[in-house]
Design goal:
about 300 residues, alpha/beta, six-stranded parallel sheet, two-stranded antiparallel sheet, about 50% helix, about 10% strand, globular
Length: about 300
């Protein structure tokens, strides 16, 4: 009954409610985040004084009507699910998923109000982020040590540098993103940065990571050829067959696009869909993309 099971986890990330097909939306609609200003500026003080996990445990059920305890209980099955998939002969690419701390505030406050806060009360926002980051990094280390994943999926979906003035991006996004990457690498895993949006302005920041320890995954908004030009000698590149093409294109178009990427990107490249495979992607287009990757 879940049109997209991961959707049920998104309130924990963005501090927003969700609308689901068959419940809040027509049956043939995609699920949606119900983003609006729910978190208040006063909540920053609560987080600073009482801690992030304490705040979230009260906020989610009482303000966005989200059953946090049920979700946490359901997630206990993740380890067994991973084992089942691997025993069936499949690779679980990234069994551990992490999001940046700014995502929670930008979702709960709403993106517009969060941006305003960065200009009006930057020190308060930073103090709040520091509290969240400290607690989240402890959890991340525990997850990596328990799962021992080859790759950790990191999603700074609202972290694209195109959204921020450079100094704000360095202070409120990159600082935390760099710490996350460093911890993952220190714990022995590869970082998969799922970089939605346009990151062209700040690609060279990724050279701060050791060579061969990061995957830069593009959704197609960042020019994949610029990624290769600027940091292709440092990161593995992943992407970026357009989602629209998987739905509306022909198998020949998908095969041509995919084959060109495989040829032009060379070694250190993972062919994948841009961001996520649409639920209504054509099966023949998926087969065409796989054919381009395997040469069969």
């Amino acid at each position: 009954d879940q049109p997209f099971s991961a959707a049920l986890n998104f309130p924990m990330v963005f501090m927003s409610g969700i609308k689901l097909p068959g419940r809040d939306l027509p049956d043939d609609m995609l699920w949606q985040l119900d983003e609006k200003e729910v978190m208040t500026p006063e909540d920053y003080d609560t987080i600073i004084n009482k801690g992030w996990n304490s705040f979230r445990a009260d906020y989610l059920p009482n303000r966005v009507n989200y059953d946090l305890q049920k979700t946490l209980k359901d997630l206990e099955y993740a380890g067994q699910a991973t084992k089942n998939i691997e025993e069936a002969g499949y690779v679980v690419y990234a069994p551990v998923v992490h999001t940046l701390v700014n995502e929670a505030l930008s979702g709960g406050r709403s993106m517009a109000k969060f941006m305003r806060d960065l200009y009006k009360i930057p020190d308060k926002v930073e103090a709040t982020l520091e509290v969240i980051q400290k607690e989240e990094m402890e959890v991340l280390r525990q997850q990596i040590r328990a799962a021992k994943p080859l790759t950790v999926f990191v999603s700074p979906s609202r972290g694209a540098s195109e959204f921020y003035a450079p100094k704000l991006w360095e202070r409120f996004v990159w600082k935390y993103m760099k710490e996350v990457g460093d911890i993952i690498i220190e714990e022995g895993s590869i970082v998969n940065f799922h970089c939605d949006g346009n990151w062209e302005r700040d690609l060279e920041y990724f050279k701060e990571f050791p060579k061969g320890k990061c995957v830069f995954e593009s959704d197609g908004v960042t020019d994949i050829y610029k990624i290769k030009e600027k940091i292709g000698d440092t990161v593995c590149i992943k992407g970026d067959v357009p989602s629209g093409m998987m739905v509306l294109g022909t198998p020949d178009e998908v095969y041509e696009y995919s084959s060109r990427l495989v040829r032009d990107m060379g070694t250190g490249f993972i062919l994948s869909n841009g961001c996520a495979m649409p639920p209504n992607a054509k099966a023949e287009n998926i087969r065409a993309m796989i054919s381009a990757a395997t040469g069969k």
